[in-house]
User: Which sequence fits this backbone?
C-alpha cells in the first residue's frame, strides 16, 4: 500500500519536475499569434488602421479588440488571410483599396526643411537642412505619413506603374460576372 | 559511337521546317527606323548613353551594361537618334520599355572594328569583351553569355554542350546558321572551350537536320577541333538545355540546381557564332538570323538588324491577306506580339504570321478528366494536373511543393491535353504570382526592420537627450551654487560654462570658476585692507571704537 503510494508520488514528482523544467526551457517569448498576424500585415507602418504601426494593430487584433478589415494597404487579400488565420468571418475592407504607391518629391518646390525625413517611418527619405530631399523608391512603402508635415506640399503619392519586369501573368480563368445591360449601344 | 540517353515525355508535333529551308539566308534591307530596346537580356537594364540628335555608327554602344549580369546594347545601323524613351516592346504584356530609336542614314557605316586574338588575352578580359559586345544566349533565354563562362570552382568542368537541336516547329534559323556559317560556330565554341576547359565538347543537333550535321562535322574537321557532332532523336523539347544535357551525357540536372553543379555547361549555336564575330571581327551583336514563316508566301531566313519593326520585316516574306497577328518564337513557346510595329530583339528567332486557318482557335477549355496524359508528356517528369489544380485554386504553396519552378513552359502538357486546358498559362500565372508575393514579403520584411530600427533610434535619441538635459541641469545647479558662493564676496559674474559640453569639461570649468571666485575673493579681501593711508586706518579705528561704544560688542557681521 505504502510502496504503491510512494511509487505514484515519485512518478508525479518526476513528471511534474519534467513539465516544470520544460515550461522554463521552452518558454515562448511574446505572443506567437501577434507575430503571425504581423507577418500578414504589409508593414507600411502608415497608421491608417488607427493604431500607431503594424505591430500595435497586430496586438490589438490578437487581443480581439480590433476588426480585421482596417488595413487599406493590405487590401481584401490581407483581410482574407487574416480571416483564415483567426477563423473569423471575411469582411469587406473598411476603406477604399488603393494601388501600391510611392511618394515623389517635386524637386522644384522642396525647400529642404527635413520635416518629411523625421516623419518617414522607414527612413526612406534622404536629405539635409536646406538641401533637396529625395525618396529612395525601393524602400518607400507609400504610407503617406510624409504628406502632412510638408510645409510646401511638394510631396505627391504616385501609384507604381507596371513595367515589363513587374508585369504578372493573368489568372487564365475568366470569371463570369453579371454586368449592367449596356446603355444605348 | 557515343551512347545516347533518353529523356522522359516529350511530344512530336508537325515540324513545318521545310518551307523556310528552301532559300538561303538573305540580308534584310535597311528598315525605315530601328527601335532598340535597352533591356534585351536577363539582369540589369543598360543605361542609355546617347541622346536625341546624336549621330551614331553601326555597332556603336548606346546602352552601358548595368552590373555584371547585364550586357551592352549597340546601334544596329548608322544614323541619327530620334527618340530615347518608352516604346511597345515584344513582350506578352504589351507594355512599353525604354528604347533608342534610330533613323538610318542609309550608309550602314560601321564603327572602327578591332578584331582581337583572344588567346593573348586574360580569360577575364575575354568575358569583359563579350559583355561589352552584348553577347547573350540567343536560344531564347537571353542570359548574358559571359556570366556562364566561369567554371565552378568546386566541380570540374566535364562537358560543354553546344545546342543546335532547334526542336521547336517552324524555326530554322539555327539550322541555316549551321549550314552556312558552321566554321564560325565551331570557332566560337572553341572560345568557350578555352575559357571553360571542359574535357569534352558535344554538339547536339536533331537528326531531322542532316545537312546541318554534315556541315558542322565538316567544319569541325576543317578547324582541327576534337568536338563531337551528334545527331539526337527528333522529339520536342530535345533542345531544352536540361533535356539535351540528359540525352548527350546521361546527367539529370536536379531541381533547383544548375547544370554547372554537375560540370556541364550549355550554349546555343547562334551564341557561339555571335561570340566569334565579336572576338575575331570586332562586331557586337547588332543583327541575328530570323525565320519568317507561317501564313506567308515566301518563307525564308533573313539576317535582320536588331530593332527592325516586325511589320517591315514580315513584308519581305509576303504575308497572306488573312494574317491577323505575329507569333514571336515557335508555336509551342512563342507568344503573339502586342502589335505589328514592335521591334526585332536579340531573343527573336522566328516570326510566324498568324492566321486562324493556320492555327485554328482552341475549342473552349473543358474540365480536367485526370487522364494523366500531361504527366506522361512532361519532359521534366512533373505532374502538371496537380500543379494545375493548385494554381487554379490559387494554392501557391502547394503548387510550389509540386515544383512548378522546374517547369520550362515547353507546352507539351497543353499540347496533349484532351480537355484543351491551357496548362502552361496556369503555371506562368502561379510563377509570377509567387514571385510577386515573395517580393512583397521581402519588402515588408525590409520595411519592418527599418521601422524597428527607426523606433530604436528615436528611443535612443530621446534617452540621450534626457541624459544630456539632466547633466546640463546638474551643471547649471553646480554653477548656480558656485555663483552663490562667489556672490557672497564678489559680485563679478563667473564665465558661464557651455551647456552642451560634456561632463569632464563641465567639471573642469566649474572647478576653474570656483578657483577664480576664490582668487577674486582673496583679491577683494586684500584690496580692502592693503594700500590704506594712515588717515583711513585711523578713521576705521575710530569707527570701530564708536561702534563698540554704541553696541558694547565687537559685532562686525551687522552692517
Assistant:
Amino acid at each position: 500500500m505504502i510502496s504503491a503510494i510512494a511509487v505514484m508520488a515519485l512518478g508525479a514528482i518526476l513528471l511534474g519536475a519534467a513539465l516544470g523544467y520544460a515550461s522554463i526551457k521552452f518558454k515562448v517569448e511574446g505572443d506567437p499569434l501577434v507575430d503571425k498576424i504581423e507577418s500578414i500585415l504589409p508593414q507600411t507602418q502608415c497608421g491608417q488602421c488607427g493604431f500607431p504601426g503594424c505591430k500595435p494593430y497586430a496586438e490589438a487584433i490578437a487581443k480581439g479588440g480590433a476588426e480585421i478589415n482596417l488595413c487599406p494597404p493590405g487590401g481584401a487579400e490581407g483581410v482574407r488571410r487574416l480571416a483564415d488565420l483567426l477563423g473569423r468571418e471575411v469582411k469587406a475592407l473598411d476603406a477604399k483599396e488603393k494601388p501600391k504607391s510611392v511618394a515623389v518629391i517635386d524637386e522644384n518646390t522642396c525647400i529642404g526643411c527635413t520635416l518629411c525625413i523625421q516623419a518617414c517611418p522607414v527612413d526612406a527619405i534622404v536629405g539635409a537642412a536646406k538641401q533637396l530631399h529625395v525618396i529612395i523608391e525601393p524602400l518607400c512603402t507609400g504610407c503617406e505619413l510624409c504628406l502632412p508635415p510638408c510645409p510646401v506640399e511638394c510631396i505627391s503619392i504616385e501609384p507604381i506603374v507596371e513595367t515589363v519586369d513587374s508585369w504578372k501573368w493573368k489568372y487564365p480563368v475568366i470569371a463570369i460576372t453579371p454586368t449592367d445591360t449596356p446603355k444605348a449601344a | 559511337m557515343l551512347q545516347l540517353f533518353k529523356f522522359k515525355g516529350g511530344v512530336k508535333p508537325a515540324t513545318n521546317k521545310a518551307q523556310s529551308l528552301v532559300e538561303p539566308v538573305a540580308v534584310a534591307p535597311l528598315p525605315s527606323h530601328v527601335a532598340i530596346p535597352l533591356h534585351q537580356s536577363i539582369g540589369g537594364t543598360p543605361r542609355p548613353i546617347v541622346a536625341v540628335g546624336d549621330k551614331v555608327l553601326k555597332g556603336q554602344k548606346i546602352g552601358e551594361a548595368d552590373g555584371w549580369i547585364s550586357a551592352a546594347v549597340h546601334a544596329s545601323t548608322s544614323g541619327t537618334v530620334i527618340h530615347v524613351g518608352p516604346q511597345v516592346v515584344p513582350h506578352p504584356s504589351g507594355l512599353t520599355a525604354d528604347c533608342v530609336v534610330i533613323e538610318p542614314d542609309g550608309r550602314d557605316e560601321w564603327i572602327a572594328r578591332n578584331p582581337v586574338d583572344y588567346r593573348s588575352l586574360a580569360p577575364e578580359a575575354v568575358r569583359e569583351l563579350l559583355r561589352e559586345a552584348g553577347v547573350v544566349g540567343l536560344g531564347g533565354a537571353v542570359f548574358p553569355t559571359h556570366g556562364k563562362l566561369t567554371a565552378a570552382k568546386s566541380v570540374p568542368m566535364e562537358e560543354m554542350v553546344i545546342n543546335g537541336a532547334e526542336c521547336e516547329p517552324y524555326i530554322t534559323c539555327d539550322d541555316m546558321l549551321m549550314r552556312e556559317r558552321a566554321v564560325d560556330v565551331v570557332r566560337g565554341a572553341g572560345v568557350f572551350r578555352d575559357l571553360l576547359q571542359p574535357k569534352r565538347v558535344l554538339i547536339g543537333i536533331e537528326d531531322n537536320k542532316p545537312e546541318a550535321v554534315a556541315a558542322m562535322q565538316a567544319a569541325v574537321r576543317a578547324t582541327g577541333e576534337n568536338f563531337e557532332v551528334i545527331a539526337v532523336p527528333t522529339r520536342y523539347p530535345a533542345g531544352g538545355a536540361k533535356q539535351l544535357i540528359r540525352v548527350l551525357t546521361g546527367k539529370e540536372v536536379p531541381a533547383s540546381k544548375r547544370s554547372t553543379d554537375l560540370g556541364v555547361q550549355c550554349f546555343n549555336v547562334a551564341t557561339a557564332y555571335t561570340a566569334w564575330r565579336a572576338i575575331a571581327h570586332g562586331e557586337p551583336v547588332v543583327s541575328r538570323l530570323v525565320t519568317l514563316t507561317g501564313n506567308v508566301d515566301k518563307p525564308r531566313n533573313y539576317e535582320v538588324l536588331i530593332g527592325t519593326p516586325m511589320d517591315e520585316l514580315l513584308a519581305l516574306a509576303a504575308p497572306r491577306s488573312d494574317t491577323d497577328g505575329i507569333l514571336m518564337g515557335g508555336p509551342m513557346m512563342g507568344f503573339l506580339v502586342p502589335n505589328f510595329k514592335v521591334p526585332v530583339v536579340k531573343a527573336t528567332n522566328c516570326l510566324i504570321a498568324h492566321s486562324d486557318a493556320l492555327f485554328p482557335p482552341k475549342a473552349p477549355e473543358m474540365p480536367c478528366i485526370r487522364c494523366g496524359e500531361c504527366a506522361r508528356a512532361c519532359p521534366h517528369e512533373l505532374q502538371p494536373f496537380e500543379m494545375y489544380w493548385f494554381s487554379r485554386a490559387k494554392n501557391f504553396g502547394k503548387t510550389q511543393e509540386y515544383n512548378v519552378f522546374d517547369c520550362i513552359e515547353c507546352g507539351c502538357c497543353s499540347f496533349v491535353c484532351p480537355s484543351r486546358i491551357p496548362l502552361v498559362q496556369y503555371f506562368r500565372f502561379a510563377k509570377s504570382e509567387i514571385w510577386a508575393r515573395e517580393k512583397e514579403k521581402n519588402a515588408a520584411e525590409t520595411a519592418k526592420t527599418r521601422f524597428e530600427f527607426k523606433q530604436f533610434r528615436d528611443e535612443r535619441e530621446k534617452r540621450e537627450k534626457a541624459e544630456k538635459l539632466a547633466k546640463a541641469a546638474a551643471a547649471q545647479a553646480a554653477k548656480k551654487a558656485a555663483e552663490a558662493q562667489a556672490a557672497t564676496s564678489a559680485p563679478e559674474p563667473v564665465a558661464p560654462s557651455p551647456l552642451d559640453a560634456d561632463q569632464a569639461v563641465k567639471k573642469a570649468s566649474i572647478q576653474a570658476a570656483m578657483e577664480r571666485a576664490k582668487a577674486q575673493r582673496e583679491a577683494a579681501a586684500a584690496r580692502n585692507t592693503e594700500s590704506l593711508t594712515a588717515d583711513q586706518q585711523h578713521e576705521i579705528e575710530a569707527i570701530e571704537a564708536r561702534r563698540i561704544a554704541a553696541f558694547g560688542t565687537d559685532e562686525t557681521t551687522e552692517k
About this structure: Chain B has three domains: 18-354, 370-460, 488-551. DSSP finds 13 helices and 17 strands in chain B. The longest helix of chain B spans residues 423-487.
